[in-house]
Amino acid sequence: MRFLILLLLFPLPGWAEPAVVIRATELKKEPATDAATVAELAENAALDAGERKGGWTRVKTPGGAEGWVKMLLLRYGGPGTAKAGDTGLGLDAEQINNAQPNAAELSKMASFAATKEASSGFAKRAKLQARPVDYPTP
Amino acid sequence: MRVLFLLLALVLTPAHAQFNLNLDRILDTVKNVSKATKEIDEKEEIAIGRDMAARLLGAAPLVADARLQRYVNNVGRWLASQTERAELPWQFGVLDAPQLNAFAVPGGTIFVTRGLVAKMRNEAELAGVLSHEIAHVLKKHHLKAIQKGAQVSLAGDAFSTALNDSRSEARAKLISFGTEMYSRGLDKSDELEADRLGVVIAARGGYDAYGLPAVLQTLQAMNAEDSAVALMFKTHPAPAERLDALADKMQPTLDAYSGQPQLPERFTVEAKAAK
Prior knowledge:
The complex is a heterodimer of chains A (138) and B (275). With 138 residues, chain A is an alpha+beta fold. Chain A contains 4 helices and 7 strands. Chain A is 25% helix and 25% strand. In chain A, β2 (25-28) and β3 (37-41) form a beta hairpin.
């Protein structure tokens, strides 16, 4: 019973986002190209999208089939998150064009700058590892 | 002497049209030489960038949270260190604005808005956005656009004055022009190039390379009519087009580095002030 209430209060990780696939593809059982195919999805097939794992996003078809598709094939639809009236403050074109310099904020920003060495320690603490990766050929 | 001889030969050429053509070419060469001497050097780039950054901070101040600002500086400086302009005086700032946007200022100053950070889920997504902006600085996209525009609006001498005298009227004009570029936007090809390089820079820093595409997908899901994304959508190619371009050119790189850390926990703690 308590579990049910919890479920109602906190629905399992959202299938909330409606999306479509931009071309025909396979619905995979696991987030991998060589995983078993659960279903064939047609171009523009509607889905509910969930979490991402690497280059894959978990989806559910209207028929209830679940699996993974390549995340770059997904385009989200639906009403979006428009917030009417969220204007006035900050960085609209007009405010940028009419802005006067703020020297105090500029020196404040300089005080937050990190040195190369400090940022390297910061990366190490999270086990981030630098590696050589080539730029794409133009 | 040889030049004189050539000129003489041209003058004596009976075909009039050919003479004009050649003369035009000589004049073009002279013009290009004088343009090249006015190339903005790195010191000037940094100085102009500081002035432009001060203007942007006049439009929106920093989020008043030292922890958030230091965090973004650490992520950004680490990424910039993986590039060919690692020695620039890089600095990063979170602007207190609800709009979703990010800005690269010449010389190594990068801004991201509180509104955009609030939409992110992990450090890899932040790294993706910062890497895109770092790429603009590496490729001098804004600087080149400023230089091009200044040549039209500021006559030869005025441009040198703008570079040399930070209190001159010409300088104020140059900085206004430069700052207005953030409301006009760059060429589409510059944005798509920054996306491709951004993916690489984030991967070099050890992050999940899908951070930038993930943010683009978040933006793509938003309503283009939403005032919070109006300027960003006006000044950038549509997110769906950017995702298409990444799928087209960067899929192998993205997949090769998709298993690297996303760091959602550290992001949640350190970027709390933006939420």
